[in-house]
């Protein structure tokens, strides 16, 4: 716990970091709050980028989390266009790329993730990643002149980009290693339905395929060759092949980073060290209800985890464990998929309601006699009601102590 007049230093100005600042103020924290953001933009929401902003339905201003007046009323020091470069965890001191030295009584790490780069694509005109507001605006402009868009990556982001671009009339090919979009996450049944929807709307699918090489002319992309030898024309490529936690700046901090994905390892209360917490996409914590460590990359978790961490910062006694029911959603063409829990292609799937032909259905996922997820398609009310099945399956287990 920190005193109400203490300084909280938040590294990251996205939904998780900014949400922590807001939650602290709503909970009565009167001390100094510093929010350091790597991007030049004021805090904004990411889910609309691959949908409303990319499609042109929203102008960038609508994606902002708060108005200028609301930011002023928050009474937080918002330091933008400057990234963290290092952390002294014992002194709670952060250095930045611009040479700032910032410190706080508590530190909240909310630096998010960056798009994973694919080899052989660096420095080629017409190739871009997709993570930021600037990325969305660049792609939206480039789609006006592009003849052939290839999206590399058939997860949530890649599928949403493909759907949004195709809805604007773009010629789109979606390439990915899965047998169908999102099948590694939601299983073959839902994946096949998503594949059918994309196909019906004119998206060309290349499932189970990966990039072999790029064809260029004067350093400008003109096409790609897949690992099966197929040539695809392309004057615009979007890479949506996963992400990497932004933790390089923590290499000498003394904090424990996960061996696999380099996320910040935390205890059940999202605490990485004494008075140092992590929130959002960058945080891996012990989920007592699930009995294992997890990391979630979605907007819902960013908001819920921010609330939990803010409360732990100002509440006396041992911090409370964070044990949410994981949730994410995706909108693609005319369908909305919602998932509570952690669905897996290994799970046994049972139809609870609806039917596939109408593309209105609710599925239950079960592993080892335990409900691990419920997934709904165009049935938001029913899906939300069955969230309880996942919550009832939680089996609380003690968390390991922090380092």
Automatic annotation (TrEMBL):
GO CC term, one of those recorded: cytoplasm
Keywords: FAD, Flavoprotein, Oxidoreductase
Pfam families listed in its UniProt record: Pyr_redox_2, Reductase_C
Signal peptide annotation: none
Database matches in InterPro entries: FAD-oxidoreductase/Apoptosis (IPR050446), FAD/NAD-bd_sf (IPR036188), FAD/NAD-binding_dom (IPR023753), FAD/NAD-linked_Rdtase_dimer_sf (IPR016156), Reductase_C (IPR028202)
GO molecular function: oxidoreductase activity, acting on NAD(P)H
SUPFAM superfamilies xrefs: FAD/NAD(P)-binding domain, FAD/NAD-linked reductases, dimerisation (C-terminal) domain
Protein name, entry field: Reductase C-terminal
Cofactor: FAD
Keyword Flavoprotein: yes
Membrane-traversing stretches: none
Residues of the FAD/NAD(P)-binding domain: 7-305
Domain Reductase C-terminal, residue spans: 327-398
